Amino acid sequence: MSLKSEIETLRDTTASGLSAAHDHFVYTKKLWRIIDIEIRRRGRKIILDNKVTGSRLTERDLLPVAQASVNDYLPSATIQQMVSLTETFLTDLVRLWVTAYPFHLKGQSVEIQTIVAAPDKASILAPLIENYVLAMGYKRPTEWFRQLQSMVSIPHPTQTEAEQFAEFKATRDVFVHNRGVATAIYADKAGANARAAAGLPLDLPDAYLHAGWALCRKIVLGVASAVAAKA
Amino acid sequence: MIDTVTHERIVIHTEGTGGPYLMVAQDQLSEATDGLIAADVPFWVDEDAISLDGEPAVAVVNLGRGADVVAVQKLLDAM
């Protein structure tokens, strides 16, 4: 498969994954709201058993589960999924590009024993490429894009989009590491786009998640198409 | 504020960890949100209202985890 085709396949797979994540969020949210309305407004009686643990839920027990799912677990899981898909797309893209054009690995050194023991050039380069991609993952998103654009000259994402994505990812980090409460690190990473001061809870309204999804999709499609055109 | 469908007082629900919220018939949504805006109460509305079996659609207004539930309930009661 050509590099161009591999990049296009990566783009399509990631875009499809983003759509699936968004569909899951929207439809699961609607289902929980239907349950809430059925119980509160239509008097629906529900009993659920878990025969393994022996627990038993009635409709009254489901109400807090519904709201926590809709506004807590579900958006938190969705933002993690969206950021993760975009992040993996970028690292996979860089891996593909550096594998095709390994001169970007300049500055890295290899032990002579590794060269002697390697059956071919690809075996020598493989660990260097993995180190390069791994090191990229520890940097901030604005640096990922800068690094990518230093390898291949593309106009995507714009500076504004890169900064918006940095805030989106910083929000994800807050939900992964601090139960959704903003920290000083969040404020630093999010910069001018920060939505809450340190110590305050960050909410994940529908509109924010929809905008975040559109941003991730735009970055994936824009970056992949621009890079594929240069492959 | 009285729900035009159930004819009951609209109350803020606080169960769980997802933040307080209220349900309101779609045709009362703008009245409720106008009141919240006028009182400078932050909120967001679920993207889609839900209608079951052809009944009037129900909208959900989320107040966020930092909301002053008592104050907002007083505001609703005064509408």
- Report mean pLDDT of chain A, rounded to a whole number: 93
Structural class of chain B: alpha+beta
Total DSSP E strands of chain A? 2
Task: Give the total of domains of chain B.
Answer: 1
The assembly state of the depicted protein chains is heterodimer
Distance between the termini of chain B: 5 Å
- Categorize the overall geometry of chain B: globular
H/I helix tally of chain B? 2
Total number of helical segments of chain A? 8
Number of domains of chain A: 1
**Helix/strand/pairing category of chain A:** mainly alpha
Largest contact between chains = A-B, 29 and 22 residues
Radius of gyration of chain B: 12 Å
Question: How many extended strands of chain B?
Answer: 3
Order of helices and strands of chain A: HEEHHHHHHH
Shape of chain A: elongated
Radius of gyration of chain A: 22 Å
Largest β-sheet summary of chain B: 3 strands, antiparallel
Structural commentary:
The complex is a heterodimer of chains A (231) and B (79). Chain A contains eight helices and two strands, in the order αββααααααα. The two termini of chain A are 12 Å apart. Chain A has a two-stranded antiparallel sheet with strand order 1-2. With 231 residues, chain A is mostly helical. The longest helix of chain A has 42 residues, at 59-100. Chain B is an alpha+beta fold. Chain B has one domain. Chain B has helices spanning 29-38, 69-77; strands at residues 21-25, 44-45, 58-62. The longest helix of chain B is centred in the middle third of the chain and has 10 residues, at 29-38. In chain B, 24% of the residues are buried. The model of chain B has no long low-confidence stretch (mean pLDDT 91). The interface between A and B is medium-sized, with 29 and 22 residues.
